[in-house]
Amino acid sequence: AALYRRTGVTPAPNATRTPCRPFAEPALAATKCLAHFIVPGVEKGASTFLFQSLSSHPHLVHPLTGSGFKEVGLYLSSGQLARGGVAARYRALPFLDPQDGLVVGDGSVYYAVDRAAPARIAAEAPHTRFILVLREPVARAYS
Q: Per the record's keyword annotation, is Metal-binding included, yes or no (predicted)?
């Protein structure tokens, strides 16, 4: 709420529909939220452009890790976050006050081919929205 008084930005509607929980480390009296949305994609499918366009919105906060703050891979089957479980996923994201109405997202072309990711997302964050961009296949092939 204090952020809005300073910036004049109003909260995003339904921004708190993500599981925001007190962070497990007692020294940190703050809240972490899992991704509100995921941009799965295919190579040359414009998912990076879409994520960068969304990132210009004042309500979107970047994850703390990932290539270009996009390729975090919160729910992918391989990598450090997969081995670390949900605690590692929370550590990859910024501290948020759920009352501020800020959102955080994730995106990776690997979501399109990781067969275990949908079940992991459904179990941990069933509210998560997906934003998928599809390009005309011939134009995509020549890009």
A: no
